[in-house]
Design goal:
The chain is mostly helical. The chain has helices at 8-38, 66-79, 128-138, 155-166, 169-172, 176-181, 185-192, 212-227; strands at 49-50, 54-55, 106-107, 117-118. The strands form two sheets. Strands 1-2 form a two-stranded antiparallel ribbon. Strands 3-4 form a two-stranded antiparallel sheet. Helix 2 runs antiparallel to helix 8 and helix 3 (128-138) crosses helix 4 (155-166).
């Protein structure tokens, strides 16, 4: 009795067809997963919590002098040590609307200015008067002649205004970046302490004041590495 056998080519075609049927669902699943990952909304930056120094999040602003950037992060570590520093009010409250300075006057409950109130807000705890004064000089997107609009208080603009202000040699009477490059952090802290009183030479030190040189060195190391 003659045995019937399929040609080898037929077996190969059947094997290929079977393999293809198995691969199709896998390929579809991978395509769907890729599309889902691609369309995920951007995740907010996570603030890094240092066990001894608190929250030391990066700046929203891109680029710039790493010495001034490190100084900005040092100021905010002392003035607004919070996982969301750009939206913090004096006293620790938070705001959602950063289209302008919030101008909320919060009662001061302790210290030399007790029972007064403060409008300090944002990463650099700028009071409303100071913000409008400096924004008029340094804000990259002024409202122009549209008097009903205000200077945006969004994170990148808080950074931009303070960066330009700290870089203004004429205002401070010295080149802050050059002083920092020379290792004269104490001198810079003294110059800035009338504006940010927690920097060590003002009227209101806090629990982090004595550790600010350590904060600055850590921030500078990160900023120099990022700039390289």
């Amino acid at each position: 009795m003659a045995r019937f056998s399929l040609p080898k080519a037929t077996f190969s075609q059947q094997a290929a067809a079977t393999t293809l049927k198995k691969l199709i669902p896998v390929s579809i699943a991978l395509m769907v997963l890729t599309l889902l990952l691609y369309n995920l909304p951007p995740q907010p930056k996570k603030s890094r919590l240092h066990p001894n120094l608190g929250y030391l999040p990066p700046l929203e602003m891109k680029g710039g002098d790493p010495y001034i950037r490190a100084l900005m992060r040092t100021i905010s570590a002392s003035e607004a040590n919070d996982p969301k520093p750009y939206s913090i009010l004096y006293g620790g409250g938070q705001i959602d609307d950063l289209s302008r300075h919030p101008e909320r006057c919060i009662t001061i409950v302790s210290g030399p200015n007790k029972d007064n109130c403060s409008t300090a807000a944002g990463r650099y705890q700028m009071i409303n008067i100071t913000w409008y004064e400096k924004a008029a000089l340094y804000h990259p997107q002024p409202p122009g002649i549209m008097f009903w609009k205000s200077y945006s208080f969004e994170p990148e603009y808080q950074d931009a205004v303070v960066y330009a202000w700290l870089s203004d040699r004429q205002f401070w009477g010295e080149d802050l970046s050059q002083l920092l490059q020379q290792g004269k952090l104490n001198r810079v802290q003294k110059l800035l302490s009338r504006t940010w009183t927690s920097l060590g030479y003002g009227i209101e030190d806090n629990s982090l004041t004595g550790r600010l040189p350590k904060v600055y060195q850590k921030m500078l190391k990160e900023e120099l590495k990022n700039a390289a």
